[in-house]
Each structure stands twice: as structure tokens, then as C-alpha cells.
Amino acid sequence: MSVTKVPSAGIDQTTNFAFTGTVTGASDLVLVDTKTISSGSANIDFTSGIGSTYDLYQFHIINIDVSANTNLQLQYSTDGGSSYESGSGTYEYASRAYNSNNAFGTNPSTSDTKMDLTVGGSQLDDSNNHNGNMIITMTGHADSNTRCCFFWHMGLIGTDSGYATGGYGAGSIRTVAHNPNAIRFKLSGSGNTFDSGKMKLYGVR
Description:
single chain
């Protein structure tokens, strides 16, 4: 098969191209969805693109700001986001965080109505210059023979005197046969909202 080489002058980007066959060398990390947060958002929901297409999914939480000191939480749906699972004993998880003042906190639960991703004094902070960042990985989402699992890393300026904070955690859905096809991010407390930032959903082949 003959090979067409790209000319040294580059490609004229005003021209339309059609490709056939298999493209190789592309990244295995594929952007699926992006949520740009508007002030006053109670929940951030990913309701499409989650299924058996990818082996795992990553949620990138980027520079988010919130209306009050609060914990970031997660719930899942099996009906495309029409409802989210919040029954007693649905989730289990464990989080741990350290800050630059050499203080740490933990936040475990063996049975809960949601999954806490942040920890006590290492919560998301409502100060404008104290934003939070996380990467959350989801696996086992399309396998009815195993439990769907999550694990994450965080980097934020926490509510404990504004110290830089790093942390990690893991959790799972306690029902084996539940296959999430939508994920909700919410905040602890009543009336707390997301005010700015982005959340991105990636699929990994």
C-alpha cells in the first residue's frame, strides 16, 4: 500500500479531509463531556456517555469554587439520571487528607446514602482563592459480576486555616448488579452550591 506523506509546508487546514481505515497512535484518554459550572449550581450531573464503551472513566474536577465550606459527594444512577441512588447502605468509602501544617483527617463509612470524596477540615473552601481539584477514576461500571469501584486523588486549599491539602480515597457501590450510567456530584449541607470551575469526563480504552 502506498503511503502519502505530509508535505514539509504542513497541511492546509481550510481543506476538508476524509480518512479511512484505522487511526493508530491516538491517545487512549478520550474527552467525553465537559461541564462549565455556573454560579448557584446545586448539582453537576453527567447523564450521557457512560457505558461499556470504555474500560474506565475519569472525572477531572478543575478549580471549583463553592458557596460554603462543604464536602464534595457522589451518587450514581442506573436510569440515565432520572433518579439517583440514595438508599441506606448503598455506598462505602474511605478518604484521607494531609495538609501543609502536618495535620490529617479521615472519613470512612461502611454504609452510607452517598460517597464523601473530601474530609472534614479538608473540605472545599468557599474563599474565592481556595479552589479544589481532584481526579476520580471509576471502574467495574459495566460488569454485573463485580462491584463498581472509585478511587481518587485531591489537591485543594482546605478549610483548616487555608493550608494546602493533598489526599486520596476509595469507595464502591455495595450492590454487585448495579451498573451506573449517570453520575451526580453534590455538596454536603443544605442549600450549598457550586459557583465556578469545570468538570470533565474522560473515557479510557
